[in-house]
Design goal:
- The protein contains 15 helices and eleven strands.
- With about 375 residues, the chain is of the alpha/beta class.
- The protein has a domain at about 45-175 and about 260-300: D-Maltodextrin-Binding Protein, domain 2 (3-Layer(aba) Sandwich), CATH 3.40.190.
- The strands form two sheets. The chain has a six-stranded mixed beta sheet with strand order 7-6-8-5-9-11, with helices on one face. A five-stranded mixed beta sheet has the order 2-1-3-10-4.
- Helix 3 runs antiparallel to helix 11.
- The radius of gyration is 25 Å and the shape is globular.
- The termini are far apart.
Length: about 375
């Protein structure tokens, strides 16, 4: 009898397995690596030519953005065994900060690194590849850029200016406003004199603030002298060396203006086109490695920087009604912007479509936020 039941169990398990295989065969593989086909048969040979390029940027050496640009150059040099050597020049060493775009476009330097929003005056859509208020966070940018056509749109936009572009550094969410005025409600922002840039500048003006796009190097003095009440610049790790906590009392959170700081690498197209095929792949892979490394590096530093900030200033959170009003004003502003600029509409519509498509997964995974045990058990289960 025991032997009979053993045979019966084997038959049952075999039938279940066959049914599962049959069911699986009705569906195609869920997702595939599009690069695989081109990678399994490499038709080009390693190049022997030694190439020297120059990189320009809007960053001085005191900003961690400079280190991100240098990291890319180092990765290319290491992976190519020095065959492609890119020499980085900080702002002012070769050209002034805001001339880096034109310098690469015209071919006086082969590579540039940036925060794309700086080129708002050339095409409004550049801002969407840098940060959108209440828009894509780091996770969203990475998925949208690499899986939903965002990188192709970025390359298309830079292509209008004789360049090739790749994502080149993702730093995550920025801090909010360093301020000497405690602001958590909408009325607190009325008349506030603020330093910010990009679309957030217009949004704050629409909410009754008075906004000025001061360069980063002028912010400290403006805050210290009371020329402005509040300012934002970047993430905690990048802000900390700037010393804003020495002259302000509050940090108004969250940084809704930049849920994700996205940087780009841009190449003079004729120079890029002349690269041997193996070096083009090295450039592409090094850019992706820089995108990954920068996020981990900056956010590891952010954790320590915010602890230091909390020792000297109060972290103030905007209340829910204020955030909702900010979101509403941002939506209305973006809708008007899309009516005026077709390129903005194309890019932002693509980002918003991704956000909608990602909603089910974002909602389903809620409640698994990685808080310490004591924090989670205290009732804080969402981020």
């Amino acid at each position: 009898m025991r032997r009979f039941f053993q045979l019966l169990m084997v038959f049952f398990l075999t039938a279940c397995l066959a049914t599962a295989v049959s069911a699986a065969e009705k569906r195609e593989k869920f997702g595939m690596d599009k690069r695989h086909d081109s990678a399994k048969r490499v038709s080009f040979k390693p190049s022997t030519e030694k190439i020297r390029w120059k990189m320009v940027m809007p960053w001085d050496k005191g900003l961690l953005f400079y280190d991100i640009a240098v990291h890319f150059c180092d990765s290319v040099r290491l992976a190519s065994a020095g065959r492609l050597d890119i020499k980085p020049f900080a702002a002012g060493e070769m050209v002034p900060a805001m001339q880096s775009f034109d310098t690469v476009s015209q071919g006086a330097a082969e590579v540039g690194h940036d925060w794309p929003g700086y080129w708002k005056g050339k095409n409004e859509a550049f801002v969407a590849f840098a940060s959108v208020p209440f828009g894509l966070d780091a996770e969203g940018y990475n998925i949208w850029l690499y899986e939903k056509g965002g990188a192709e749109m970025m390359n298309e936009l830079y292509g209008k200016f004789n360049m090739v572009a790749l994502p080149g550094g993702q730093c995550g969410q920025e801090m909010g406003l360093f301020s000497n005025k405690r602001a958590s409600k909408m009325e607190d922002f009325k008349g506030m004199r603020v330093r910010t840039v990009g679309w957030y500048m217009d949004i704050l003006n629409n909410l009754g603030a008075s906004v000025s796009p001061l360069p980063g190097g002028e912010i400290y003095l403006a805050l210290e002298r009371g020329v402005i009440d509040a300012a934002e610049f970047s993430s905690p790790a990048i802000n900390y060396p700037m010393g804003f906590d020495e002259i302000t009392k509050y940090a108004i959170q969250p940084g809704v203006h930049q849920p994700g700081i996205q940087c780009a690498l841009f190449f003079n197209k004729p120079a890029y086109d002349k690269l041997p095929e193996d070096l083009k792949w090295i450039v592409d892979i090094a850019a992706k490695e820089t995108q990954l490394w920068s996020y981990n590096w900056i956010n590891g530093l952010n954790a320590e920087a915010i602890r230091r900030f909390k020792q000297k200033i109060e972290i103030v959170h905007m209340d829910k009604d204020t955030l909702l009003q900010f979101r509403k004003t941002t939506y209305e502003y973006m809708e008007e912007l899309k009516k005026k600029f077709p390129d903005v509409k194309k890019v932002v519509d693509s980002q918003e479509e991704f956000l909608k498509s990602y909603t089910d997964w974002r909602e389903a995974r809620g409640g698994a936020a990685a808080w310490p045990y004591e924090t989670y058990m205290g009732g804080k289960i969402l981020e």
